[in-house]
DNA sequence: ATCTTCGCCTGCCAGC
DNA sequence: TGCTGGCAGGCGAAGA
């Protein structure tokens, strides 16, 4: 499920339990997710206190007192669950019986003991450990584009990053080197809000269109983050399949339904192998 | 170099 | 009911 707003929601749910807590035990139920776990993963984590849990684009980044950073990516189906005193509610996950639980962190924090489990049916997620001082230069982050909700992303920076590109605007925005953290849903939603066609060549975005697009990207992400935050109390309830922002989609998964502005049917097309949803009347 | 397709996995849903 | 095909918000590698 995770694009930037969902990862931020997960971060906000995990932070109260993980920040300041000591990792007393790490259990791996398999040697890999999408990629193998890094060398000495368990021994580099056990005994460490997690100082901060941050987010960069769609990545969770835990800063350890050793100076190393624990990188966690949820892929498409990764989910964290919290059990114990730090958990909101009283959630009990059948960890032993769930074949999709791959990682278990035992934590000792200010509020007591807690267990954080990572489940991922498709195993498109991954975890990594980056040595101290190498976070920004690591393979994950070295070529990553600006963080969309920060001041790094301006109309000028976006326009320059799209300049010269002949790829469709939709495909360019999915490229994490252009802007970091957007996925298929929020690209579709942002293009609709900006009134820009997903088929337009990226390089045709000049200053005025870049301004609209940046505004749309920031707005839709911010609204989604806030919607995720509003359901945070359910973070550890049920199966994590919260429905927060989806009822507010203007175009995503609405093929054939009426555009909320002009009532034309929303169209679906495939670009770079991914579904694009848009209004052919409102988006030019 | 840039852009597109493919592969990784499992679960779910519509249609037969 | 069971089977099949298509689809899914991720990424990086390989191909064009």
TrEMBL record:
Keyword terms: DNA damage, DNA repair, DNA-binding, Glycosidase, Hydrolase, Lyase, Metal-binding, Multifunctional enzyme, Zinc, Zinc-finger
InterPro entries per record: DNA_glyclase_Znf_dom_DNA_BS, FPG_cat, FPG_Glyclase, FPG_N, H2TH_FPG, Ribosomal_uS13-like_H2TH, Znf_DNA_glyclase/AP_lyase, Znf_FPG/IleRS
Pfam families: Fapy_DNA_glyco (PF01149), H2TH (PF06831), zf-FPG_IleRS (PF06827)
Entry binding sites for DNA: 100, 122, 165
Named cofactor requirement(s): Zn(2+)
Gene Ontology molecular function: 8-oxo-7,8-dihydroguanine DNA N-glycosylase activity; class I DNA-(apurinic or apyrimidinic site) endonuclease activity; damaged DNA binding; zinc ion binding
Catalyzed reactions per annotation: Hydrolysis of DNA containing ring-opened 7-methylguanine residues, releasing 2,6-diamino-4-hydroxy-5-(N-methyl)formamidopyrimidine; 2'-deoxyribonucleotide-(2'-deoxyribose 5'-phosphate)-2'-deoxyribonucleotide-DNA = a 3'-end 2'-deoxyribonucleotide-(2,3-dehydro-2,3-deoxyribose 5'-phosphate)-DNA + a 5'-end 5'-phospho-2'-deoxyribonucleoside-DNA + H(+)
Enzyme Commission code(s) on record: 3.2.2.23, 4.2.99.18
Subunit and partners: Monomer.
Stated name of the protein: Formamidopyrimidine-DNA glycosylase
